[in-house]
């Protein structure tokens, strides 16, 4: 996971509704969904930017929670294996 500040994160002056379809065309939807970018194109408009951020915050939180849960379950299995030996 990487955290990028505002100035670094400026894709261009092109609105997301214009450049995100090009990303999908060239690299597939996974290029966006892997970054927790909502695929609801209504959220890609400048007018809906705050709603996009709310949705992304929710999906990022869920992804981080799932990652932590998976990591803790893997750790539990490894600990159980070492105790069994």
Gyration radius, to the nearest Å? 18 Å
Main beta sheet strand tally, sense and closure: none
Q: Can you write the helix and strand succession as a string?
A: HHH
The number of helical runs is: 3
Binned, the helix content reads: 55-70%
Overall SS class: mainly alpha
Shape: elongated
Average pLDDT, rounded to a whole number, is: 84
Number of strands: 0
Describe it.
- The chain contains 3 helices and no strands.
- The model has no long low-confidence stretch (mean pLDDT 84).
- By secondary structure, it is mainly α.
Please render the helix and strand layout as text.
Layout: H1 16-27, H2 30-33, H3 49-84
Give structural attributes.
3 helices; mainly alpha; single chain; 85 residues
Task: Briefly say what this structure is.
The chain is mostly helical.
């Amino acid at each position: 996971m990487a955290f990028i500040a505002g100035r670094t994160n400026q894709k261009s002056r092109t609105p997301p509704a214009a450049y995100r379809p090009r990303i999908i065309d060239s690299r597939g939807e996974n290029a966006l969904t892997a970054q927790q970018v909502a695929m609801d194109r209504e959220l890609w408009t400048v007018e809906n930017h705050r709603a996009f951020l709310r949705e992304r915050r929710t999906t990022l939180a869920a992804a981080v929670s799932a990652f932590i849960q998976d990591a803790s379950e893997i750790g539990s299995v490894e600990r159980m294996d070492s105790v069994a030996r």
